[in-house]
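Anyone have tokens for Disease resistance R13L4/SHOC-2-like LRR domain-containing protein? Sequence:
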Amino acid sequence: MDSIKKIGADLYGGPGAFPRLENLVIDDMKRLEEWNTAVSSDKEELAFPCISFVEIRRCPRLRFKPHPPQCYRLRIESSDEVMLSSWEKGNTGEFGASADKHLHVGFCAVPLHRRCLCFEWLSITDCSDLTYSSLDFFRGLTSLQSLTVMHCQGMSLPERLGDLTALTNLEIWHCKGIKSLPESMHKLTGLQTLTVHDCESIKSLPNRLGDLTCLTGLHIMHCKGIKTLPNIIKKLTCLRTLRVIECDGIESLPEGLGDLTSLKELQIDRCRGIKTLPDSIHKLANLRALEVLTTAYLPMDSDSGRLLKHHVAARGVGPLEDLASLKELKILRCRSIKTLPDTIQKLTNLQLLEISGCPGLFQWFASKENKMKLAHIKKIVCAYSGVIDGHGSGSGGRNTGKWVYISTPNIF
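Reply: yep, here.
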């Protein structure tokens, strides 16, 4: 295969060859220079009429002629000439034409070009040159619905990003060189999901984030430079999922969080600066899933308990009387918590209580009176180290029906 320089009708048999072929991968053919994607001189008849997915990897000399393959998904990695051939003079086609919908470009050093981007879904990974040769580049992306940028260290997002008016999903992963999100993003009024992951140079979210009124998912993860969530997020009335994970610079959540009346899932995970939750949190009547995993303990007398709906992983327990819909309660690694409130008896829908790494609570469980407060709960799981109420020590466990005791090494 190393000696092959051209793929054409003479290689795969002319018209009618592989009529049902759907997936094609060309990998590590360093001498391959040309793939003729048509089998007739008029360029109308395609080589593989049913092709759906094409992947080109490590083919540094390969060029498409007379046009790129017409497939639903096209993946190109470490093959710069493939990208260049898509808009060279004499090439009759362009990426994204006809059936083409998804394009992934990875490990390419050449700039993108307006002729290669008529796709609905675009993913760019580990590309060193994301400059654009046309000022109308973003204006031409009228069909783009999803944009993912990953591991592009030397890039910044252009201010023209707001011209992608059809965009519904925007993801930025591991781009340490990006220092800000363009203010023009407020024009992405159809955006439904925004994910920013491991972009440590970003210091803040756009001032007009609240203009993204169609946003249903906001995920901010591993962004240590972000100091606050703007209170303007209260305008995101369609937001259903909010995840803030390992953002140590954030010290508090905005009071406007309680105005997110459509919110169903809230995850605050390992944000060491957050020590309390806003009082307005009890207004989230539709909240069904909550995870709060931080190093800071939430005080027992806080309103944090109002957050818990259906599923909770928390480091602190607050008032529970409002949690009529609660089905699962998990309390993890909370050494300061020594008791559960009596109001836990009012959680008549509670089906699972899981306690892990809370030595004070294990002693509380030893009381028969306290166990009676939990009689309505269908299953109780206790993961502990040492001997608690005579249920064993060391590694192992014991199942006594509704109570499951899991004895673990002292790792907490």
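The two ends are 56 Å apart (CA to CA).
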